[in-house]
Amino acid sequence: MDRQQSEILILEDEQAPPSGAVTPPRQPKWYDTFNYIANPDKFCRENWQKYGPVFKTGVFGGTTIFVGSAKANQMVFNGDSQYTEISLLPTTMAMFGEYSLFQRPDLHRQRKSALRPGLAGRALEGYLPHINKTILQAIEGWKNKKTIALYPEVEEICFDILVPLLLGINLNDSQENISELPVTSKAELKNLYQTFFNGFFSLLKWESPLTAYGRGVKARAKLIEFMSAVISQRRKDTEAIDPSKDFLSMMLASQQENPDGVFSDRLIENQCLLQLWGSHYEISGLFGSIIYQIGQHPQVLDRLREEQSEIKNISIEHLQEMTFLEATIKETLRILPPSSTANRKLTRSVVSDGILYEKGCTVIAEPRIAHILPEHFKEPEKFIPDRFLPDSDEGKMYEYIPFGGGVHGCLGAQMAMVIAKLFTSHVLGMFDWKLTGKAQFVQFPIRRIKDNYQIQIKSRV
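and the corresponding structure tokens:
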């Protein structure tokens, strides 16, 4: 029996597709994975120009269908438990761990709902003093410099913001607070995280010191040991846990209130690590891209400063008034989306918008396609923040997908926007900057400006 949901026809096994339904164009090629990893943006753009916004590839093995049209994105994002399941590299799934949101789709909604209060709403308001202080302390040091290496500088700031907020520990504190932990310095923690991150996208699941995956597994074990020690140390504190203090505190307070609920120790350890993993590199890349994009468009800079001059204090309410700044950040994410947003394997064949997606194929919703479609955005090659102002009709659901969508939409999207607004607002007020030519970008797994790209910077009087 056919089932029709949101214009998506789910086929029963052995059921013939409707007359006229066609499979996506293009045949998978053995070298697709290498071409995609080398330059995802170029790979997506060239194939879109030749085949349209839905096409077959051989990326990561088997048949992988890349999609960018709104209807196709909607199909990919909303198929859980009906016709799709999570499809990630075996190395990625192993690095996520058995307590990640991805390993138990049956518990995904419950766990995500429980985690959200620590990353949105009132919690973010409580985080503002720490975020502000960290940003201001860091960029104060820029006043004595004529040039800075853009990405390393902003990456350091992001790490200093996120570690206390997500892991509940400040490694810049006195030795008395951290001497009993397995990781006792920020440098060591950063190195472990980089090794952990590198293991996620290894194509070879071989647990050896010779492979990125093997080194990542070892780093992951050390990080879990670290988080276990942080949790034990927190429990020794005689003061009541304040759930608004940080992400870890929210989970520990919920665990105290309901010991048989969602938050086991293993889930808390794992989620702290994964939330930092998911936030740090994405937000760092966004910081660098914002500075780069504004530097290319003086007229945007002038409008941003005009808006900033009218806002005297920093609060959640005042951040919401920064509509042109928010539009500029969103346009940056449209032009330079950090990564793909959803990988799903089809457990049933479906038909959407006349296209047959066959059972067993993997589908990937690609912002690198969705964000350049003329039917989604007028003059998509141009940097036009106005397209995201409140009275615009662009940036609709499923057309604009930097944070994914559906039940797997990014849990930290609101936090990322708040941090990005605060960072940009302070830099706008304190500095003028000039780009030093065209930047080169690391393309995979996260798109970001390369470490060696520098900008000229001058303190504003």
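(Above: one complete record from the training split.) The mean pLDDT is 90.
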